Amino acid sequence: MVFTLSYSLCFLLLLLKLLPFSIIAQTYKNIYLGSSLIAQDSNSSWASQSGEFAFGFQKIGNDGFLLAIWFNKIPERTIVWSFDGSILVQQGSTVELTADGQLLLHDISTGKDISVSSSAGTGVTHAAMLDSGNFVLANQNSISSWESFDRPTDTILPTQTLSRGSILFASHTRTNYSKGRFMLTLESDGNLVFYTTKFPLDSRNFIYNKTEVSGFEVIFNQSGSIYVTAQNGSILYELSSNVVSNMQDYYQRATLGYDGVLRHYIYPKSDSRVERGWSTLFFTPPNICTSVLEGTGGGACGFNSLCRNDDLEGPSCHCPEGYNFTDPKDLLKGCKQDFVSQSCGEESQETDLFYLHDMRSTDWAGSANYEFFDSVSEDWCRKSCLGDCFCDIAFFKEQMCWKKSIPLSNGRIDLSSDWKAMVKIRNRNSSSTTVGADSGKKDNSALILHGIVFLISCSLFVFLCLIATCLLVYRIYHRIAKVSKLYPGIQGVTLRCFTYMELKEATDGFKKELGRGAFATVFKGVLVSENGKYVAVKRLLDTMVRESDMEFKAEVSTIGRTNHRNLVQLLGFCNEGQHRILVYELMSNGTLASFLFGESKLNWHRRKQIALGIARGLLYLHEDCSSQIIHCDIKPENVLLDDTFTARIADFGLAKLLKTDQTRTITAIRGTKGYLAPEWFKCLPITVKVDVYSYGILLLEIICCRKNFEAKANDENEMLLADWAYSCYNQRKLHLLVDNDDEALDDMKKMEKSVMTALWCIQQDPSLRPTMKDVMQMLEGTVDISIPPNPSSL
């Protein structure tokens, strides 16, 4: 049976390849012989039938026009294919489907004709831009003889395959589409391999990621999965799995970025509830900074540079102290010294003109050490490097000293490492040249006069510096005292204090609203001072500032002391007059509520991961913080999703901190109707079990993708989710909770455990509810779950 199915699938794939594209594509517009496009500022393209893709000229800054294919219905006009990204033509150039069926690019500036479809066969009668993003030349029988899908650049699209020998080349930079420093290929032996290139040549250099699979093809299907198959069609290796249901509501692409990372992106087609933009579902390698280790070449960010990987924003390139980027438009080109190197002349070693700048968690792996010393002190290592004109970097660790000279390769910043680099830098007030022999012949009186002027100038400078330092210390002390007085609970917490004007400018006058609540409105912002970093700016309503001041202080003091992967990160705050503002990292996929109760539903696998993430975040708040924290308002609207759909607990405005010797407290009702534990209404002491109850309700919503109360339910018994869930569990009809969710129905054993966990969480008696640690073990399947009683029973 398996044999028959495998070869049936193989036959089906072969048949699809042989079918005319007119049968596979639903409809398309014919582009007939003699048709042409002109490169000009106004739109010059051939669009697909739906208008989702276009082929033509796209203007690249002020450099010229690129012949390309792009997403045509989104503002970004993201390019997915280009003809030789190194060729930018000027305005007035043309592309023509000639009378003999060739696609010809005419460059008006050189007068040359360049064949775009040089490999196309004879008999071409027309061309078409398909809704799949594939541009084809075809004969009268609609059989293609040339396709853009067969000649990918840096991107593949759904329905596109990579056969053995196919190559994706990363672009040079974000805006330069010529071949860059990285490539991905399915080799002749079937291995999927990432290479650095011998840039500017496009030949292979070193492997930085390899999957040995003996694959036949890489397939990107319309459901959002990217995988390697064998010749019989069986899946050997999955790069990216579908994590979002209703994938037809999203545009998709998989692109090998200019930084060497392969990313699977999605873009909502028309969903006003979430911020539109490309979101990352998957990327590989996980950390390119440590993956790239070239024997020859500069590494992930070029010579003398440092690569730093951030889980949320990916890799970024930096220069060490005393160095600047060689080309600010091409950060992967590396860094250069911004000072004159130490002289090696016999008469002057210039030792006193340099110092060593310490950089921790920093390494240039693979750079040759030209000297190594053992059983020495750090001070000895420093002096040795300062006295050595060839030494540009010294490393010290456990009484061992290494010396390296530029250019340095494979630089990385890894906070988990204990390496310490000492970078040699010229003192800013030192001269780049040495004093010559003729200087001793100057007139002594002139030297004395210069000396007196110099001493007076120095004395005046020192006096002014002393005054400035006193003023600065006073202002800093006054500011710290003010902040400490306002927020005594966050002493020692490193948060940036923003000015109101900074945040007003970052949000373009508080115009881009992301959402609003009873006390605050959240805006999208861009921090120019942080290299254009996107942030969420939460502004308390001016009329509610006094009433909400306690909530504001609670949120700053609570989340300011936390640090966990499943908690949203607070970056800073503003407290000027009536302005109370919090600045958070921006979560690109918005709230969990939009994916549970909206049109775009998350698949069962992703929902399980999100439920686990929320549980981990709550466990951290309840047990791993220095002060136990009760969130008090766990609900889908307060769970945000980053670009990889990782759950982040947010909105700590109602949070309650317990003292070291406290396990419970008495406080006014906090939270949202539907998620409140019974003890809130009984004037009983509040413990972390109120969060467990709220989590139980939320877990049921995650399982069923519906709200905890639906007045318009088909059956009156289904209005309250908690009661309905227990009824389905008790009657062995759990399939009703996930009707039409095939993935969940295929995983009924895991789904049943999740429902049982939720039912234990929402028990009326707090003592019966599990801790979040117990919840974690239940969801992970490491403990047996006993039969839960009816949560409604008293």
TrEMBL record:
Residue ranges annotated for the Protein kinase domain, each copy included: 508-783
Residues annotated as binding ATP: 538
EC number annotated for this UniProt entry: 2.7.11.1
PROSITE patterns xrefs: BULB_LECTIN, PROTEIN_KINASE_ATP, PROTEIN_KINASE_DOM, PROTEIN_KINASE_ST
Localization of this protein: Membrane
Catalysis performed (reactions): L-seryl-[protein] + ATP = O-phospho-L-seryl-[protein] + ADP + H(+); L-threonyl-[protein] + ATP = O-phospho-L-threonyl-[protein] + ADP + H(+)
GO molecular function annotations of the record: ATP binding; carbohydrate binding; protein serine/threonine kinase activity
Record-linked SMART domains: B_lectin, S_TKc
Keywords: ATP-binding, Disulfide bond, EGF-like domain, Glycoprotein, Kinase, Lectin, Membrane, Nucleotide-binding, Receptor, Serine/threonine-protein kinase, Signal, Transferase, Transmembrane, Transmembrane helix
GO cellular component: membrane
Topology term for the membrane: Single-pass type I membrane protein
Residues annotated as signal peptide: 1-25
Domain annotation Bulb-type lectin: ranges: 28-150
TM regions (residue ranges): 447-474
InterPro entries: Bulb-type_lectin_dom, Bulb-type_lectin_dom_sf, G-type_lectin_kinases/EP1-like, Kinase-like_dom_sf, Prot_kinase_dom, Protein_kinase_ATP_BS, Ser/Thr_kinase_AS, SRK-like_kinase
Family: Belongs to the protein kinase superfamily. Ser/Thr protein kinase family.
Protein name per the record: Receptor-like serine/threonine-protein kinase
Organism expressing this protein natively: Rubus argutus
